[in-house]
Design goal:
With 245 residues, this protein is an alpha+beta fold. Helices cover 61% and strands 16% of the residues. The chain contains eight helices and five strands; from the N terminus they run ααββααβαββααα. A five-stranded antiparallel sheet has the order 2-1-5-4-3, with helices on both faces. The chain is elongated and about 85 Å long. It comes from Amycolatopsis dongchuanensis. This is GAF and ANTAR domain-containing protein. Keywords: Transcription, Transcription regulation.
C-alpha cells in the first residue's frame, strides 16, 4: 500500500507536487488525443498517484443499458466492479446515482453489499472510495479507488479525490463538448456534400428532360423509394452514370 501523507518525503508540499504533476500529465493527454477511452485511462493512472491510500483505480460509466468499467489500472478492479453490477448496487453505483462520495471499509459493508464485499475480500481489498462523475447527459459514473487494507481511506484522501474529480470533470466536459462540435461539423460537411450532389442530379434531369426542379426532385425521390436506397446515394450514382456517358 502507498505511503500516507505523513510518510511522504517533504510532507504536504511533496504531495501537492504529485497532484500538480498528475494534473499536468492529464492535461498533456488531453492535448494529444480526443479519445474518451484514453482520457479515462489517464485519469485512472493519475488518480492512484494523487490519493495516498489508493492502490488501484477504475472508472464506472452508467448508461441506459447498464454500468460498465471504462478504464482501470488492474484487472482485479474490474472483477470487483462487476460484482457490484451483478448485485445492482455497491459504492460505485451508489456514488453515481446519488452524486455523493462514498467511503467504506469492506468489513463494515457486508449487510449493504454482500456479493461486493465477498469478492473484494477475496482479492485483498479492504477499503473503497468512490466519487461521482457527471460529465454530460448519458455520460456519468464514478471514479473508484481500492485500498489493500482496512484503513477505510482517510478524510484527507476523500478531500483530495473530490478536488481531483472536480478538475477531471471540467477537463472531460470540455473534451466532450469539443468532440461533439467536431462531430457536428462532420455531419454538416456530409450534409452539404449530399445536398450538392442532389442539386447536381436535379440539374442534369432538368436539362435532359426539360422539366421543373420539383419534377426532377420527384424523379429522384421515386427512384430512391423504389430501390430502398438513400436519396443522396441515388443522386451520386445518377451523376456518376451521367458523367460517364
Amino acid at each position: 500500500m502507498q505511503a500516507t501523507m505523513s510518510e511522504l518525503p517533504g510532507g504536504s508540499s511533496a504531495h501537492l507536487d504529485e497532484v500538480r504533476q498528475a494534473l499536468e500529465a492529464l492535461s498533456d493527454t488531453v492535448a494529444v488525443t480526443d479519445d474518451p477511452g484514453a482520457l479515462l485511462q489517464a485519469v485512472c493512472e493519475q488518480v492512484v498517484r494523487v490519493v495516498p491510500g489508493a492502490d488501484m483505480a477504475s472508472i464506472t460509466l452508467v448508461r441506459a443499458e447498464g454500468a460498465t468499467t471504462a478504464a482501470t489500472t488492474h484487472d482485479v478492479a474490474v472483477k470487483i466492479d462487476s460484482a457490484q453490477y451483478d448485485e445492482g448496487d455497491g459504492p460505485c453505483l451508489r456514488a453515481a446515482r446519488t452524486g455523493e462520495i462514498v467511503r467504506v471499509e469492506i468489513d463494515t459493508a457486508r449487510q449493504l453489499w454482500p456479493h461486493f464485499t465477498t469478492v473484494a475480500r477475496e482479492h485483498g481489498v479492504g477499503s473503497y472510495l468512490a466519487s461521482p462523475l457527471a460529465v454530460a447527459e448519458g455520460f456519468s459514473g464514478a471514479i473508484n479507488l481500492f485500498g489493500f487494507g482496512g484503513h477505510g481511506f482517510l478524510e484527507l484522501d476523500q478531500q483530495i479525490l473530490e478536488l481531483y474529480t472536480l478538475v477531471v470533470t471540467t477537463v472531460l466536459r470540455l473534451s466532450h463538448r469539443a468532440t461533439q462540435a467536431r462531430e457536428q461539423v462532420r455531419h454538416l460537411r456530409i450534409a452539404m456534400q449530399s445536398r450538392a450532389v442532389i442539386e447536381q442530379a436535379k440539374g442534369i434531369l432538368m436539362a435532359a428532360h426539360r422539366i421543373t426542379e420539383d419534377e426532377a426532385f420527384q424523379m429522384l425521390t421515386t427512384r430512391s423509394q423504389h430501390e430502398n436506397v438513400k436519396l443522396n446515394i441515388i443522386a451520386a450514382r445518377f451523376v456518376e452514370d451521367s458523367t460517364r456517358r
